[in-house]
Predict the 3D structure of the following.
Amino acid sequence: MAEVAAFAALAAFAASPATRGQRAAGQAASGGRLLSRLQVGIPGVGWAVGGISLAALVVLGISVAHAGGPAPAPGSGALKTAKIGGMRVLTNARGFTLHWFAPDTPTRSTCYGTCAGYWPPMTGTPAAGPGIPGTFSTIKRSDGTTQATYNGHPL
């Protein structure tokens, strides 16, 4: 919101006519007709600045109202592996690579808020596809949801 307010203030200041002393100094320095016409002011620009600022505030308000991190990655479907860059990686049923967050412990996830927005936890009970070695389990997150783990690491 601060950006929209700053835009409105700067646009109003830039579009307002110059004072008589500022016009004389500007004309003497540049001698340009265009500058002198701009310094007189543009008719109706105040309404334009106000309208654009109001529209920006409305769009910002709608964006904030609909903001939130992406939904947690559902645990439905079997986990599988994929080969990426010559290495085998663990993926969910939709083919998205699963990771673990180093600060997590085998019993507690520390990825919440913005972190979980960028790296959604895999929720639900994992079902390992055929041929995947390792141990799958779950932990309870602080919000009460169940998060899948692999070899003791929350996914």
In short: The chain has two domains: 2-66, 78-154. The beta strands are 78-84, 87-91, 127-128, 136-140, 146-150, 153-154. Residues 78-154 form one domain.
